[in-house]
C-alpha cells in the first residue's frame, strides 16, 4: 500500500484473525443451476446494530481491516446492511444491490466512526457501485493487475450478518457464468466462506491486493466474486456508472 496505506501483510499475518478457513480442497467446478436465482443467496441481511470491532488489533493499525467499511442502507422498504472497501482516500467500492432503493446511506469505519457520504453511483453492466465520501477513509489497498487463477489463495474482509468485521480464507475454484445474470462476462467462484452482509467485501490475494468483489454465494456455500478485471474496466469509463436513484 502507498500514501496513507501501510505495507501489505503476508497470509501468515492475516491468519491471526481468520474466522473460517478453507474446508475442502480444490475440486471440479460445481454446477450452478441456470436461471434459478433462488439457488443463490443475496448477501444483504436485515440491519443489525454494530457488534463492535473486538476482532481487530487494539491500536487499529492493521490496514487490511481499516480499509473495510460497513454500509447501512436506509431503504425504501426497510433497513439492510452490506460491506464495502476503499480504493482511494475518498472512494468506496461495493455492490449495486447493497445501495439500491436507498433513502440514505450510512457508512461505519472499523473503529465505529461515521463517514459522511457525498455521492453514490451504480453500474448497469455489473453488480458494482461507487460511493464517494466527504471525509478521508482510514486506509485503502491496491487493485491487482490481473485476475487470479484456479488454486490461488483468497482472503475476504467484510461485515457478515451486519455484525463485526471478520476475515475468512479459501482459494479460487475457477470461473463460471453469473447465475444471477447481473454481471458482464464470467465471474469468479471461490470456497472462501461468506454470509449475508458480505456483499461488497474485498477479496484479496496474498499481497493484500484486491482480486475481486463479493456479491453472492451459491446454494453449495461457494462465494461469487466480480473479478478485478471487470472492476478496472468499469472504473476506467465513467459512463458505465449512473447516479444512484433514491426512493
UniProtKB/TrEMBL annotation:
One of its GO terms (molecular function) is serine-type endopeptidase activity. GO terms for biological process: proteolysis. Residues 37-60 are annotated as: Disordered. SUPFAM superfamilies: Trypsin-like serine proteases. It holds the Pfam family Trypsin_2. This is Trypsin-like peptidase domain-containing protein. It comes from Cellulosimicrobium arenosum.
Amino acid at each position: 500500500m502507498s500514501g496513507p496505506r501501510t505495507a501489505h501483510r503476508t497470509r501468515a499475518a492475516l491468519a491471526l484473525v481468520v474466522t473460517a478457513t478453507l474446508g475442502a480442497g480444490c475440486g471440479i467446478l460445481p454446477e450452478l443451476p441456470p436461471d434459478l436465482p433462488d439457488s443463490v443467496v443475496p448477501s444483504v441481511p436485515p440491519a443489525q446494530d454494530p457488534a463492535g470491532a473486538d476482532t481487530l488489533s487494539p491500536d487499529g493499525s492493521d490496514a487490511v481491516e481499516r480499509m473495510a467499511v460497513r454500509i447501512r442502507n436506509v431503504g425504501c422498504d426497510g433497513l439492510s446492511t452490506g460491506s464495502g472497501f476503499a480504493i482511494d482516500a475518498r472512494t468506496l467500492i461495493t455492490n449495486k444491490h447493497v445501495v439500491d432503493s436507498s433513502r440514505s446511506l450510512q457508512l461505519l469505519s472499523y473503529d465505529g466512526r461515521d463517514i459522511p457520504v457525498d455521492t453514490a453511483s451504480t453500474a448497469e453492466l455489473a453488480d458494482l457501485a461507487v460511493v464517494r465520501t466527504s471525509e478521508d477513509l482510514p486506509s485503502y489497498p491496491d487493485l491487482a493487475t490481473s485476475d487470479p487463477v484456479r488454486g490461488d489463495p483468497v482472503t475476504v474482509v467484510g461485515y457478515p450478518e451486519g455484525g463485526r468485521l471478520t476475515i475468512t480464507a479459501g482459494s479460487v475454484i475457477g470461473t463460471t457464468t453469473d447465475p444471477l445474470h447481473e454481471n458482464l462476462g464470467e465471474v469468479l467462484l471461490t470456497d472462501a466462506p461468506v454470509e449475508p452482509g458480505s456483499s461488497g467485501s474485498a477479496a484479496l490475494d496474498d499481497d493484500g491486493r484486491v482480486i475481486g468483489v463479493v456479491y453472492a454465494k451459491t446454494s453449495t456455500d461457494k462465494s461469487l466474486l466480480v473479478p478485478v478485471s471487470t472492476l478496472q474496466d468499469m472504473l476506467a469509463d465513467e459512463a458505465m456508472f449512473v447516479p444512484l436513484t433514491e426512493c
